[in-house]
Amino acid sequence: MRKVFVRSLWTLLAIVILGSAVAFTAIWNGFIGYMPPVEDLQNPINRFATQIYSADGKVIGTWNFNRENRVCVSYNDISPYLVQALVATEDVRFYDHSGVDFIALGRAIVKRGLFGQASAGGGSTITQQLAKQLYSETAKSTMQRALQKPIEWVIAVKLERNYTKEEIIALYLNYFDFLHNAVGIKTAANTYFNKEPRDLNIEEAATLIGLCKNPSLFNPVRYPDRCRERRNVVLDQMRKAGYISDAEYAQHVESPLTLDFHRTDHKDGVAPYLREFLRVYMSAERPQLSNYPSWNRRQFVIDSIAWVNDPLYGWCNKNRKKDGSPYNLNADGLKVYTTIDSRMQRYAEEAVYAHVARYLQPEFFKEQKGKPNAPFTSALTQKQVNQIMERAVLQSERYRALKAAGASNEEIHRSFHTPTEMTLFTYHGDIDTMMAPIDSIRYVKSYLRAGFMSMDPKTGAVKAYVGGLDYTHFMYDMVTGGRRQVGSTIKPFLYALAMENGFTPCSMAPNVQQTYTVGNQTWTPRNTNRKRYGEMVTLKWGLAQSNNWISAYLMSKLNPQQFVTKLHEFGIDNPEIVPSMALCLGPCEVSVAEMVSAYTTFVNKGIRSAPMFVSRIEDNEGNVITDFQPRMNEVINAESANRMLVLLKGVVDGGTAGRLRYRYNFTGEIGAKTGTTNRNADAWFMGFTPQLVSGCWVGGEDRDIHFDTMRMGQGATMALPIWANFMKKVYADPSLPYDETAKFDLPPGYDGCSDGETSSDDPGDGALDIEEVFE
Question: Which GO molecular function entries does the Swiss-Prot or TrEMBL record give (predicted)?
Answer without folding.
Answer: penicillin binding; peptidoglycan glycosyltransferase activity; serine-type D-Ala-D-Ala carboxypeptidase activity
